[in-house]
Amino acid sequence: MVVPAEPFRHVAREARESFEFQRLAPAATKASESKGRERPEEPDPLRTAYERDRDRIVHSNAFRRLARKTQVFIDPSNDHFVTRLTHTLQVSQIGRSMAVALGLNESLTEAICLGHDIGHAPFGHTGEDALDEILDEGWVHSDHSVRVLSVIEPLNLTWETRDGIRAHPWRNEEGPATPEGMLCRYADRIAYLSHDPIDAMRAGIIRYRDMPFRAQALLGDQHGRWVTAMVHAVIDESISAGRVRMVPDVAEAMADLRSFMFERVYLRAEGQTMRRRAIGVVQDLVRYYEAHPTEIPTSARQADSPTLQAVDYVAGMTDRFANRAHAARCG
Question: Which residues are CB-neighbours of 134 under 8 A, at least 6 positions away?
């Protein structure tokens, strides 16, 4: 008599941690070898440490606010334009796909990608520039992302997740300590260099034939092909080099495309009026809440100085909320 197999199996955390050593590549970051959290916690019975990080980020208030934060176009009227949330989801998908293909830790990659922009100011990099001018020590969205997840909305994430979020921008020369963090670096650039040109074409700012020739030749003429070409360039070169890298000619084509996007889209003259207005909104609000600290919600009063409290609060605003608050407080 054949006994039918049980339809389900209970796969607890310990079993999944063991599976990581069996199925992941030697270079992968294993959850059971994490450097741990700032505050010790009892392990979850079902989830690994990185799975727990991922879930905490997704359930955070700061993550939900990304739905109404600018990626490139400030307060677009077209619902198909990319927001900071849809960008984050695309980064996560791209990073996760590369992690699986390279045998790296998918959950850690996903946690870093989901949290990488969680501290972005309203109005995208324009808001970041506005806050950077206010603080003597400067203001960087990746550092603030870690502050949001550690202080303002303390989720007690693992060291590896926080490190990947903090070090994901390319201007950080040291770079992330884990290969999964490096995947987030590439996934972020792949995502925005594939969806931002589409948005710019949708807005009538550029045409496909305007794009750099090398990018057209290497990446193809369809959005899906761009992503595929760049993802494969990371996977192929990483396997060959033994560390997370991208095929040089594709990396150069991406650099051409990035320079083109800065010249023709991000810093275009036609957008400067809106950019100046956004900077004014952010800086006016910081000055207002610096002078009226009691109007800042208790949850945002984690800093010692009134200026940093105001910056924390304004940085967490969505574009729409910032505009409403400016009209009510500074108009």
Answer: 283, 286, 307, 311
Q: In sequence order, which residues have a C-beta less than 8 Å from that of residue 88 and are 6 or more positions away? A: 63, 66, 113, 114, 116, 117, 118
Spatial neighbors of 197 by CB under 8 A, at least 6 apart, are 206, 211, 257, 261, 265
Total H helices, total E strands in the chain: 15, 0
Q: Are 116 and 165 in contact (CB under 8 A)?
A: yes
Can you tell me the distance from the alpha carbon of 17 to that of 102, in angstroms, rounded to the nearest whole number? 18
pLDDT in tens, the chain (331 residues): 676 788 998 999 999 999 999 999 999 999 999 999 999 999 999 999 999 999 999 999 999 999 999 877 665 655 667 889 999 999 999 999 999 999 999 999 999 999 999 999 999 989 999 999 999 999 999 999 999 999 999 999 999 999 999 999 999 888 999 999 999 999 999 999 998 998 888 889 999 889 998 888 888 777 678 899 999 999 999 999 999 999 999 999 999 999 999 999 988 888 888 899 999 999 999 999 999 999 999 988 888 899 999 999 999 999 999 999 999 999 7
Which residues, at least 6 apart from 201, have a Cβ–Cβ distance to it below 8 Å?
207, 208
Torsion sign across C-alpha atoms 156, 158, 162, 165? negative
Give the C-alpha separation, 157 to 147, whole Å. 11
Residue identified by tokens 């994901």 is 168
Output the pTM of the full model.
Answer: 0.95
| Residue 219: CA count within 13 A, CB half-sphere | 27
229 neighbors 219 (Cβ within 8 angstroms): yes
